[in-house]
Write a structure and sequence with these properties.
By secondary structure, the chain is of the alpha/beta class. It folds into two domains: 250 residues, Aspartate Aminotransferase, domain 2; 162 residues, Aspartate Aminotransferase, domain 1. It is built from 18 helices and 15 strands. The strands form four sheets. Strands 4-10-9-8-7-5-6 form a seven-stranded mixed β-sheet, sandwiched between helices. A four-stranded antiparallel β-sheet has the order 11-12-15-14. The longest helix has 23 residues.
């Protein structure tokens, strides 16, 4: 490569990924076949429109690629229609609003602090600015850290739906560790005549692999990204179910028009081709074993963390994701310290809000972690026990650091301007910490045994 600066940065990122452990549940490793297609000649083409109806010439092979991608998605998920052009998940969700709502219509979605997504109506998102949004949460009670199979208060969700009469209801989350009961959400949506859209971005691969229930029999619309548990390129799809077409026979056309020309120009044809490859891979029997191992790994890792004294929302994990509430461990607002210290140790995860959040989304009280990427590398139960142990060791280092600040120290009690100063001081100290350096070397040794595609 002639561009030495970019080449250097690519090599540094490659080194970071190979020598560390990726636990962000919304990240994964695309296969070499998917990555190969992303840099194919399809990257050069411009294809505004849809197969057989383009605004440019020279799209005969692009049309075939897009049709093949559509057919594979329809077969894999059991739907009647799919649009594979959205650039990513947030634009895909916004296209759903554009297709079935008018600005100012009422929509309902899971609150961000309760594990929902920005595009499900959060106030800082365009979806919360241009639409009247009603947010529902999770059950908050003393037993939230005990093993459960559902954290939704359906009576409260039904009450909100009947009171506000939403045009659109979202089911799906970005930080929810249990399975979804799509049937109960459908009953509520049908009672008030709302469209029900399932955002399965996090669990699409688990659904394809048969280890998570599918929303298709119950909802009208399904959206998903293609790069999380589905293990494809960065991209998204919008699907319409049989139930959706019965509610509105023109729903497919409305979705298409919302994506183009409503929100986007020409699709990224190389991305479409790579999604098609990922869908092919997800249809193989080996993918079912992969999906099963993701969940198994998540449950083993959760067990280690619980035994180590952590509070896990829902009492564990039923999917690929674990949400740890550190409030009782460090006090409110301390997820950022766990993220930063673990990052220095070679474990990448993210700070995250928790149900009943006492701090803020900027300084949340929890951490979110998951097992898709490690499972892709071939790690199993033995490695999950190792990972869990190292996470607990790092958290113990943080706790010891906090204890040195005084018996009554609580980060969230600091004045706003002093919080940033304390975090910078913490980072400086952690970079010098010998135990953290030792853990990083131990993690590097294990990580390098497992290849990245």
């Amino acid at each position: 490569m002639k561009d030495k600066k970019i080449e250097k940065l690519i090599k540094l990122e490659e080194k970071r990924q190979k020598e560390g452990l990726e636990l962000i549940p919304s990240e994964n490793y695309a296969s070499s076949e998917v990555r190969k297609v992303l840099s194919s000649y399809f990257v050069n083409k411009y294809s505004e429109g849809y197969p057989g109806r383009r605004y440019y010439g020279g799209n005969e092979w692009v049309d075939e690629v897009e049709r093949l991608c559509q057919e594979r998605a329809k077969k894999l998920f059991g739907v009647l229609f799919v649009n594979v052009q959205p650039y990513s998940g947030s634009p895909a969700n916004l296209a759903v609003y554009l297709a079935v709502c008018q600005p100012g219509d009422v929509v309902m979605g899971q609150a961000l602090t309760a594990g929902g997504h920005l595009t499900h109506g959060h106030k800082v998102s365009a979806t919360g600015i241009y639409y009247k949004t009603v947010q529902y949460g999770l059950k908050i009670q003393d037993s939230k850290f005990k093993s459960q199979n559902d954290l939704f208060d359906y009576d409260e969700i039904r009450r909100l739906a009947k009171e506000h009469k939403p045009k659109l209801i979202w089911v799906g989350a970005t930080a929810y560790p249990l399975k979804f009961n799509y049937k109960k959400f459908a009953e509520i949506a049908d009672e008030v005549g709302a469209y029900l859209a399932a955002d399965i971005s996090h669990v699409a691969g688990l659904i394809a692999g048969g280890v998570h229930p599918s929303p298709v029999p119950y909802v009208h619309i399904v959206t998903t990204t293609t790069h999380k548990t589905l293990r494809g390129p960065r991209g998204a799809m919008i699907m319409v179910t049989e139930k959706g077409l019965k509610k509105d026979p023109e729903l497919s056309d409305k979705i298409n028009k919302a994506v183009f020309p409503g929100l986007q120009g020409g699709p990224h044809d190389n991305q479409t081709a790579a999604i098609a490859v990922a869908l092919y891979e997800a249809s193989q029997s080996s993918f079912k074993k992969y999906a099963f191992q993701i969940v198994k790994n998540s449950q083993v890792l959760a067990k280690v963390l619980i035994e180590g004294g952590l509070d896990l929302v829902g009492g564990g994990s039923e999917n690929h994701l674990i949400l740890a509430d550190l409030t009782n461990y460090f006090g409110p607002g301390c997820g950022v310290f766990a993220q930063k210290a673990l990052d220095l140790a070679g474990i990448t995860l993210n700070k995250n809000t928790v149900p009943g959040e006492q701090a803020s989304p900027f300084y949340p009280s929890g951490i979110r972690l998951g097992t898709p990427a490690l499972t892709t590398r071939g790690m199993k139960e033995k490695e999950m026990k190792f990972v869990g142990k190292k996470i607990l060791e790092v958290l113990a280092i943080i706790k010891k650091y906090f204890e040195k600040q005084g018996k009554d120290f609580r980060f969230w009690d600091l004045e706003k301007e002093k919080r940033g100063e304390f975090i910078k001081k913490f980072e400086v100290e952690m970079k010098k910490n010998k135990d953290l350096t030792r853990i990083k070397l131990e993690i590097k040794k294990v990580a390098k045994k497992f290849i990245i595609p």
